[in-house]
Each structure stands twice: as C-alpha cells, then as structure tokens.
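Page 42, continued from yesterday. The earlier attempt failed because a stray header line got pasted into the input along with the sequence. Redoing it now with the clean sequence only.
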Amino acid sequence: MKRRLAPLVLLPLLAAAADAPAVVIDFEDATVLLENARSNRAEQVVANGVVFKLAHAPRKSKGKGMLTYFAHLPSGHKGLVSAMALEAIPVQAVFPKPVSSVTVAAWGSTAVPAVLEAFDADGKVVDRAQLDAAPRRKSPGDPVPIFQLSVKGPRIAYVQWSGPRPGEYLAVDEIRYVPVADESSR
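This time it went through. Structure tokens are written below.
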C-alpha cells in the first residue's frame, strides 16, 4: 500500500521542482531605480528584466506618470511607489517570461488598503490578493509593519498593485517571483 501512495505523494513535489527557483528584487538598494533614471523619479524601472511602470497614464493631469524611490526615514526601509500623489494609479510589473507565483512585501500609509492582481498575457485576472488595511504600529517607536500579498497562476504575464487613495502611498519593499519552467526542456 505504501508503494502505491508514494508516486501520488511525489507528483506534487515533482511539479513544484519543475519551476525555477524564486527571483527576488529588493528595492532597498537605490541603484535599482537610479541606474534607470537621472533623478529619483522615472517613467519606468527595469530590474532583472522586469519592467516596472504605471498601469496607465495620468487622467487628472497632463504630466507624465512617474514612479519614485521612497525611503521611510524613521525605519530605513525603501520601496518603489507611484509618484502620482493626487491620483491613485496602480503600479505594474511586467515579467520577461511567464511566472507561476508572485509575492510582494510592502508597507504604506496608516491603514492603507492594498491589492495585488495577477494577469495572463491576454490581460485576464488570474488571481487576486487583498488587504483591507495595512497593519498599524502599536506604538510610535515600533518598526513600520511590513506585510505580504501573494498571487498564483499557471502563466502570469504581469501583476499590478494598488489601493492607496489620493495622498496615500503603498511602497513595495521587495518582489519575489517564480518563473515558469522552460517548456522546451520538458
């Protein structure tokens, strides 16, 4: 009986092993943004082949949509945010090849809502994670709370994070993704 169960137990392990190891982009290093821009703002940022940009152009302004590298001075954390403070525009991360899962570690304004959506190559939502309100510090001396949102799908082409209302921010400290295994090697 144990011999019959063993292959069933190994199948999920073999499927998980078919995916490549996770890739991590950490925005703690300012060079991730600054190597792609002449200032602390940029229309897009490219890191490890992933293109970060706003999901759409500003609709309330004639200015260019920009990302910025944001430092939380009391904690020392740094993250990537939409620089459009008066217009809530989602930030998009487009992967060079399909991925099977994405996790973002983020922090934001007190009680800011957060949404992470995964899309396939046709622009269809394949998974969604949501947090109604970012965790609050229990006292002013506590470190800024960092939370995670994760999405999964068979072939994620890009993700978008959103949630802040005008005047709020949601800073992504780190993005971790798992590329889909090369199908030609199967």
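Notes: Residues 19-180 form a domain with the Jelly Rolls fold (CATH 2.60.120).
Reminder to self: strip header lines before submitting.
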